[in-house]
Amino acid sequence: MDGVLANVYNQFIAMHAAEFGKVLKLKEINGVPESEVFPNVQQYINSPGFFRYAPVIKDSQRVLKLLNERYKIFIVSAAMEFPNSLSEKQAWLNEHFPFITWRQIVFCGSKEIIDTDIMIDDHFKNLDFFNGETILFTQPHNVFAPDGNHKRVKTWLQIEEMLS
Amino acid sequence: MDGVLANVYNQFIAMHAAEFGKVLKLKEINGVPESEVFPNVQQYINSPGFFRYAPVIKDSQRVLKLLNERYKIFIVSAAMEFPNSLSEKQAWLNEHFPFITWRQIVFCGSKEIIDTDIMIDDHFKNLDFFNGETILFTQPHNVFAPDGNHKRVKTWLQIEEMLS
Prior knowledge:
2 copies of one chain form a homodimer.
Chain A: H1 8-20, H2 26-29, H3 34-37, H4 41-45, H5 60-70, E1 75-77, H6 85-96, E2 105-108, E3 118-121, H7 124-127, E4 133-137, E5 151-153, H8 156-163
Parallel strand pairs in A: 1-2, 3-4, 4-5
Helix pairs in contact in A: 5-8
């Protein structure tokens, strides 16, 4: 969800700018872990509204709606670490992805017991131990990392091309 | 979680009694679907506090704590159908099972993408399509149903005996 559907970097940059008066550019962010770029990232994530008002990643709504007709889609979010995020994430999904039903939503701590054919994720910690096909979604924190055994995509248009 | 750790029948019976002035006995409930026994069950489940104040099923705390030291335990709850239940279920688990960390909690709609070695559940709809070992936890709604391919247990003492 975060970093694939929800543009959390937009939130980080906006909140960092509000706090420090400087809008970080992608070249300053690319390849650096979130916690190094944004020293107060934990505080941002725990702020009310952080998940609720995150912008949607470009083209994800249209493409996911398309794929939802051809695949059995599940939205799996490692949400448990942030207890307040659950209701915000639910409301966010209902607003922006109304075609995703409650049967298709999974909020977990770890993704290690998730068993599907394909996983799309921006974190190696989720993809590396997954048994199925893995698609790495490019985000600033992983942009310079080697792809490993994963297929890397930079946009939802590439996912559309790959899966439809 | 419900019907294995959380005693939801206790809640059903209490709320039914409050509404209709009659405390149902087990012999009136056994073998009948929840929705037939309790015509307003959906209303009860959606009431604030329903999940938060459900009693704990006997011996589940002690035995799960024991098993948590020997197994990798996940609490998987089909919570998404009831959006208000998420925060109540989180708080309930934190209170009664403080040794279960956020990494071990999964709230989902369907359990069909859950992949573990063993599943303990009171519903055939979750157990029947599961690939691992299945343990059917007896609850009034399933008490007269044939066990099928599942091992049936009536108490957490039996689970302790089986798995420790």
